[in-house]
Structure formats: structure tokens, C-alpha cells
Amino acid sequence: MNMSNGMAALGMIGFLVWMFAVLLGLVVTVLWILMPFAVFAIRRRVDEQQALLAQIDRHLAEIAERGRTPPAA
Hints:
mainly alpha; 1 helix; rod-shaped
């Protein structure tokens, strides 16, 4: 049996594992850098939704208040 083929295969596997770790690290680094921009973009949308929900709540309160008052005769 030739041991050099087995050692070459182990070397290739080690290189592939190392390359996978480097690529994964690069992806995580890029995502980590971009995350604050995504958070601020989402926050703006959440603020808009919160304002819309407050407006809907006021309208529902007005409708409920009109339902409690007796109709004018």
C-alpha cells in the first residue's frame, strides 16, 4: 500500500475544512458589519406600525364611545 496517497487525502480534507472555516468566518464578519443597518431599517418600520396602531386604537375608542351614547331622539 502506498501511504502517500492517504496522507495527501488527509491534507486535502484538512485544507477543505480550513477553507470552510475561513469562508464561514468571512460570512459571519460581513453579516456582523451589516446587522446595525438592518436593525435601524426595521426600527423605522416598527415605529410606523406603532403610529398606525395608535391611530387605529383612537378610532376604535371613538367608535366604542359613540356606541355607548344613546341615540338622539
